[in-house]
Design brief:
Length: 376
C-alpha cells in the first residue's frame, strides 16, 4: 500500500488548479500540487488557497514529459489535470496516467481533445479499469446535469443547451478559446453524426431564463456535450451555445478571434500557436479576482424535446470556477472510495451520476434546486 498522497493536481498554480486544491482540502484529501515552477506553486498555495495551513499536501516541480510525469504519478490514484490547451499538452499526461495506473480527469472545453481521447485512449483506459474523464467543469458538467434531469422523461431525443456565466475568462481559458478557434473545428450532433458549425456564423441572440434582455452566445468550440451524448442511445441531436453576461465582452470576442485568425493564417502550426498565445496574453494577461457570488452568477438551461414530449431544466448558480474546483474534488473523493460507474472514456455524469454531482454542488451552496418542467 503506497503512503503517497493519493491525488495529483497538475497545473496547481493556475486559477482553476488553486480552487481544486481548496476543495480537496475541504474534503480532507491529501494531494500533490504539481507544475513546472516550485516557486509559483508555493506562492499560489500560500496566497490563494484559504486554509492551506490545515491541508495535507506537498508541492512538486516536474518536467512536462511522459517519463517525469509517470514517475510523479506512480503510487497516486487520481490525476486532476488543468494544463491546457489540452490538445497540445494533454497526451503526455494521459499516457503517464495509464502507465502509472491512475484515473484521469481534466477541465477541458476542447471538443477535438475529447474526440481524440475517445478514439485513441478510451478503450485502453477501460481495459485497465481506469476512468478517462475530460471536461469536468461548470461549463460542461452543470449543463449535463440539467440535460440528464430532462432525459429522465422517456422519449426525448433532442437537446438544446445554453450555458451562461458572469465574469471574465482566466488567462488559460482565453488562450484555449483562441487556439481552439484557429486550429480545430466545432461540431454539433445531428442524427448522431457530427456536423460542423459554420465558422463565420457570428453571434447568436438567445432568450435565457431569469431575464428579459436577450443574451449573446457562441458555439464556444462545440463544447463537450455533443461528444458525451453521441454515446447515449436516447439522444440523436445536441446543439450548445454559451457566453458571458457581459454583452460588450461578447461583442468583442468574434472580432478578436477573426483578427487573430487572419494575422496567423499563413504561419506553420508551431509559429501559429505561439502567435495566438501572444494575442491571448494581450487580451487577458492577469488572473481575474476571486469570484463573488453576487457578481459571478451562472445559468445552465436545457430544452429537451422529442416527437411527442418536451422538458425544460434551468439550474441557477454562482461562481462557475468554484463549481469546477468542487466538481473535480468530488470526482477525486469518489474515485478514492469506489470505482466509477463506467470505466474508460466517460463524462462526470456517466461516471458518478447526475444526482450525486448535483448534491455536491447544492451541498456547497453553488447552485439552486433545478427548475424542471415537463410537457408530454
Amino acid at each position: 500500500m503506497s503512503d503517497k498522497r493519493p491525488v495529483v493536481v497538475y497545473g496547481a498554480s493556475g486559477y482553476t488548479g488553486r480552487l481544486i486544491c481548496e476543495y480537496l482540502r475541504e474534503y480532507g484529501i491529501g494531494f500533490i500540487a504539481a507544475g513546472r515552477s516550485l516557486d509559483k506553486l508555493d506562492a499560489a498555495m500560500q496566497a490563494n488557497v484559504p486554509g492551506i495551513e490545515t491541508a495535507d499536501y506537498e508541492t512538486v516541480a516536474v518536467e512536462h514529459s511522459v517519463a517525469a510525469l509517470t514517475e510523479l504519478f506512480r503510487g497516486a490514484r487520481v490525476v486532476l489535470n488543468t494544463v491546457g490547451p489540452f490538445s497540445r499538452f494533454g497526451n503526455e499526461v494521459v499516457e503517464a496516467c495509464l502507465a502509472a495506473g491512475c484515473h484521469y480527469a481534466d477541465t477541458t472545453g476542447e471538443q477535438d481533445w475529447l474526440i481524440h481521447l475517445d478514439q485513441t485512449w478510451g478503450q485502453r483506459f477501460g481495459d485497465a479499469g481506469l476512468l478517462l474523464s475530460p471536461g469536468i467543469a461548470h461549463m460542461y458538467t452543470t449543463g449535463e446535469i440539467a440535460a440528464q434531469l430532462c432525459l429522465e422523461t422517456p422519449g426525448l431525443d433532442t437537446l438544446d443547451i445554453a450555458v451562461f456565466w458572469g465574469g471574465s475568462p482566466t488567462i488559460a481559458s482565453t488562450q484555449t478559446i483562441l487556439v481552439n478557434a484557429a486550429m480545430s473545428k466545432a461540431y454539433y450532433l445531428q442524427q448522431n453524426r457530427y456536423v460542423e458549425w459554420e465558422p463565420d456564423a457570428g453571434l447568436y441572440s438567445l432568450s435565457i431564463p431569469g431575464q428579459h434582455e436577450a443574451a449573446l452566445a457562441l458555439p464556444w468550440g462545440g463544447t463537450s456535450h455533443p461528444v458525451w451524448f453521441k454515446r447515449d442511445p436516447r439522444v440523436a441531436n445536441v446543439r450548445v451555445l454559451g457566453g458571458v453576461f457581459n454583452k460588450p465582452l461578447m461583442q468583442g470576442v468574434p472580432k478578436i478571434v477573426a483578427a487573430a485568425l487572419e494575422a496567423t493564417k499563413d504561419l506553420p502550426p508551431d509559429a501559429r500557436y505561439a502567435a495566438l498565445a501572444q494575442t491571448a496574453a494581450g487580451v487577458m494577461n492577469e488572473m481575474p479576482p476571486r469570484e463573488n457570488p453576487r457578481l459571478n452568477k451562472s445559468v445552465d438551461s436545457v430544452h429537451a424535446s422529442g416527437p411527442l414530449g418536451r422538458a425544460h431544466c434551468a439550474i441557477f448558480g454562482n461562481c462557475n470556477y468554484k463549481q469546477t474546483g468542487l466538481l473535480q474534488a468530488f470526482a477525486a473523493a469518489w474515485l478514492l472510495q469506489q470505482p466509477p460507474r463506467r470505466a474508460g472514456f466517460a463524462s462526470a455524469c456517466q461516471a458518478f451520476g447526475h444526482h450525486e454531482l448535483l448534491g455536491a454542488l447544492r451541498g456547497f451552496g453553488l447552485v439552486q434546486a433545478p427548475v424542471l418542467s415537463v410537457h408530454d
